[in-house]
Amino acid sequence: MNQEVSAFIENLSQPWQIEVSNQLRKMVHQVIPEAEERIQYKKPHFLKNGHYAAVISPSKDAIAFMIMNSSGLTFPKGFEGPDERKWLKIRKEDTPDYGLLEDLLVQASSTL
């Protein structure tokens, strides 16, 4: 695991954001064991075979989890973004469906 990514997550301002980000990071590494992680554009990016697979993007009141390479996949209500990348904004009161996110990430990253 990349120390810059660890420090980034641990320095988020709200405990729930740290918890969600750590869970998302763990999920990415379960789905893509060979994932490379780094801070790019001031947020954690996860790559598979040199291609972007996922991004954790915190804001003041949410954590957006972006799945790259998503063209052709069907996303449930709540996801935003253009066809090639979709994101879900997770807020403090939300209970993320990590199983769903995992399934979508498996599909999206399978061709990387």
Characterize the structure shown.
It comes from Paenibacillus agricola. The chain is an alpha+beta fold and 112 residues long. Helices cover 33% and strands 31% of the residues. The protein contains three helices and six strands. It has helices at residues 3-10, 15-31, 98-109; strands at residues 36-40, 43-48, 51-58, 62-68, 79-80, 85-91. The chain has a six-stranded antiparallel β-sheet with strand order 1-2-3-4-6-5. Helix 2 (15-31) crosses helix 3. The longest helix has 17 residues, at 15-31. The chain is globular, with a radius of gyration of 13 Å. The mean pLDDT is 97.
TL;DR of this structure?
The protein is α+β, with helices and mostly antiparallel strands and 112 residues long. It contains three helices and six strands; from the N terminus they run H-H-E-E-E-E-E-E-H.
